[in-house]
Amino acid sequence: MELALSLGDPSKSFSFLDKTPKLSSKDLGFCMGLRLQEKVDAFEGEAATGDGDYKRVSSDPPHQLDLLPFSPVPRVQPSSQLRFPWLTDNVMETGSSDGRGRGLDVNRLAVVALGEEAEEGAALSSPNSAVSSFQVDFGFRNGSSRGKREVEMETERGSSRASDDDDNGSTRKKLRLSKEQSAFLEESFKEHNTLNPKQKLALAKQLNLRPRQVEVWFQNRRARTKLKQTEVDCEYLKRCCETLTEENRRLQKELQELRALKASQPFYMQLPATTLTMCPSCERVATTSTTADGKNGLLPLTKTSG
DNA sequence: TCCTATTGGGTACTTACGTCA
DNA sequence: GCTGACGTAAGTACCCAATAG
User: Fold this and answer.
1) Which H, E and C letters describe A109-130, residue by residue?
2) Distance from residue A262 (CA) to nucleotide C17 (C1'), in Å?
3) Residue A275 CA to chain centroid, in angstroms?
4) Dist CA A169 CA A18 (whole Å)
5) How sure is the predictor about A259, in pLDDT bands with cuts at 50, 70 and 90?
6) Would you say residue A252 has pLDDT above 60?
7) Which member of A45, A107, A203, A207 lies 3.0 to 4.6 Å from A139 by CB, making a disulfide possible if both were Cys?
8) A213 CA to B8 C1', in Å?
9) Positions of the region Disordered (predicted)?
């Protein structure tokens, strides 16, 4: 049995940004291998296949736990309203049938007033500049289904965001991202779990967030993913441990039985040298005996496991 | 070519806040 | 209304690789 657990998929890069192969091996590159090795040694020191060499007993392919970013929030497909700004083929639709999608963004007013935002927005390279023309409304929406409390919090958020960015050293105010923002970030994260500066700026602009917020969100998201994966790994290894313990118990029992058999049959030692090898795929023991003429004869397989 | 300082982005850990039972 | 658990945004410290001088 061979296990190979990996975090992340370093081989995967942004399909739309293949010029930025950023993910290094250390980025969530946690690989763990567990190889079950079994010393093939038929009976104690008798007719071993070699001088104590180890052989893999399974040809099973490694079990790979693919790290899929878990999605605590409902998945939102990047529809015509939710497009990744850095996608070159993301030609945002200019029309809005319901009049909500790209309407007046109240939050935008506060954002525009931010020096940092303005500067970083201006720093956006021209290929992404089209984004600014197609703001997705992640701020207030007239007639939205959200409750009064949520709207109130949004109001607080809007005001506190402006005050936060003053950087006047006031107490930090925790800003809750809206469901739409979280869902969009989640979709972005599925595309790639790290961002280059361009992507960060574009996302921030798209979501009416500060680049720092996007950055922090991705950091925390990676941390959550890693934590989740660690839990999965732990659970998996626990099961492996249980399986191996059970296997060990079974083999010990089998060994005891064979010893008992050996003791009850004195003529046993007169048999030709026998080698037991376990078939890795079907877990049967193939018995190879040396015949009188020196040739090896393969005896029928013996099922060893229940 | 080697060394060093700088910079940017990453992780790990922590804190503080919002939500909910 | 109070409280504790939990989720998460954000701060901080530190590490590492790339780069310039």
Assistant:
1) HHHHCCHHHHHHHHCCCHHHHH
2) 63
3) 44
4) 40
5) very high
6) yes
7) A107
8) 17
9) 145-175
Q: Quick one: pLDDT band at residue A203, thresholds 50, 70, 90?
A: confident
- How far from each other are the two terminal CA atoms of chain A, in whole angstroms? 18
Do residues A31 and A64 touch, judged by C-beta distance below 8 A? Answer: no
Does residue A195 surpass a pLDDT of 60?
yes
pLDDT at A287: 52
The CA-based angle A63-A69-A75, given to 5 degrees, is 130
- Beta carbon of A71 within 7 Å of strand B? no
| Residue A233 Cβ < 7 Å to strand B | no
| Lowest mean pLDDT across A152-161, A201-210, A237-246 | A152-161
Contact A296, A288 (CB under 8 A): yes
**Nucleic chain B contacts, protein chain A, residues 154-173, CB cut-off 7 A:** 171-173
Q: How many CB atoms lie within 10 A of CB A105?
A: 18
The protein residue nearest B8 (Cα–C1') is A197
Residues 204-233 of A with CB under 7 A from strand C: 212-213, 216-217, 219-221, 224
In the structure, how far is the CA atom of residue A224 from the C1' atom of nucleotide C6, in angstroms? 14
CA of A188 to C1' of C2 (A): 40
